[in-house]
């Protein structure tokens, strides 16, 4: 397109355009169009006109052409537009929604926009608008696991009661181990984050071994007692329990929330528990590890320190984990559970049981 055009404006039109610009009751679009033509009459380039009028260059070219074709009157009226498409009937919309919520034909796992457009005879954009209006996202899938523990309700009430109403003169600790943490070293250095470009990291890596983090999360103040070990058998678990036992002041009972991992129920662990009467174990329901508060801590640790980390050895990995534990304990945050057990159980009861 031409960068510079010659716009000839008569003295009469210049006076009219100046009056339009000075009229504060005029619509802003009329004032901008008048400015474009007057600046163009001064033999300014399209770039300079767009800068002064604060519009795009295509807008400058468009209104220069309109003025040349129709004068000042063309600047003050809107051009005719092609009639829009007729709205999709409600019956058709309901049919699209029903089809989306049903199984697609054949062995296809889910509907796609193009597949639905082909099946319905509508355009892809129309299908997308219908899905957006009804909050339908066939490409997304959420997983769930319904616990089959016969004592599910009792265990939920027990653990949630500990979180929301902890007993006096006692600690509530959420205990678990994060096993098989890999010390991964990248084959090449990555590139840092830049404006317009995300950070990069090679997809391949070198393995330097694994470690296991045993952690006890104090739900009352957020402090974490952690220890890295090479294995996660009952021997390491008992050693970690001894570590926690030494850290907790005498005279305080300890209520520990654990999952159903076999190590936590080993006969030697039960013997240890019998020798330490101030300890009480509370096991989460089967397939109910989401009740264990320390899982949230493990999630944050993974995102902030492990997933993008580069570790030359297991010792480097353990040192990074220990530094994170120290940083976390400098400014810990209490764990606040807000959902009562009754609401959790009621929500689970509302979920239909899938047929086998």
Automatic annotation (TrEMBL):
One Pfam entry name: DDE_3
Gene3D superfamilies: Ribonuclease H-like superfamily/Ribonuclease H
Residues covered by the Tc1-like transposase DDE domain: 173-317
InterPro entries, per database record: Homeodomain-like_sf, MscS-like_channel, RNaseH_sf, Tc1-like_DDE_dom, Transpos_IS630-like
GO MF assignments: nucleic acid binding
UniProt-listed NCBIfam families: transpos_IS630
Name of the molecule in the record: Mobile element protein
Species classification: Bacteria, Pseudomonadati, Pseudomonadota, Alphaproteobacteria, Caulobacterales
């Amino acid at each position: 397109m031409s960068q510079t055009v010659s716009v000839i404006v008569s003295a009469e039109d210049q006076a009219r355009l100046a009056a339009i610009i000075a009229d504060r009751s005029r619509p802003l679009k009329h004032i901008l169009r008048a400015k474009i033509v007057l600046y163009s009459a001064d033999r300014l380039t399209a770039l300079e006109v767009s800068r002064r009028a604060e519009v795009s260059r295509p807008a400058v070219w468009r209104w220069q052409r309109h003025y040349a074709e129709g004068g000042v009157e063309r600047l003050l009226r809107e051009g005719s537009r092609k009639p829009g498409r007729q709205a999709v009937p409600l019956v058709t919309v309901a049919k699209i929604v029903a089809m989306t919520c049903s199984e697609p034909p054949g062995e296809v796992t889910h509907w796609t926009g193009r597949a639905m457009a082909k099946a319905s005879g509508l355009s892809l954009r129309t299908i997308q608008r219908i899905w957006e209006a009804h909050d339908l996202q066939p490409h997304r899938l959420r997983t769930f696991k319904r616990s089959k523990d016969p004592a599910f309700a009792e265990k939920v009430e027990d653990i949630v009661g500990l979180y929301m109403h902890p007993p006096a003169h006692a600690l509530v600790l959420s205990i678990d181990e994060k096993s098989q943490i890999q010390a991964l070293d990248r084959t090449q250095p990555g590139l840092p984050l830049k404006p317009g470009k995300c950070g990069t990291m090679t997809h391949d890596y070198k393995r330097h071994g694994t470690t296991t983090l045993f952690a006890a999360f104090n739900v009352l103040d957020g402090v974490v007692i952690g220890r890295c070990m090479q294995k996660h058998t009952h021997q390491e678990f008992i050693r970690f329990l001894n570590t926690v036992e030494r850290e907790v002041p005498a005279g305080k009972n300890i209520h520990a929330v654990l999952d159903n991992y076999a190590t936590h129920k080993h006969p030697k662990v039960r013997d240890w528990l019998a020798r330490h009467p101030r300890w009480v174990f509370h096991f989460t329901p089967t397939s109910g590890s989401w009740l264990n508060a320390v899982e949230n801590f493990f999630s944050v640790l993974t995102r902030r320190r492990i997933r993008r980390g580069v570790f030359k050895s297991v010792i480097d990995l353990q040192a990074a984990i220990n530094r994170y534990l120290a940083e976390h304990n400098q400014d810990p945050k209490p764990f606040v559970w807000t959902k009562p057990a009754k609401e959790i159980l009621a929500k689970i009861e509302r979920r239909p049981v899938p047929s086998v």
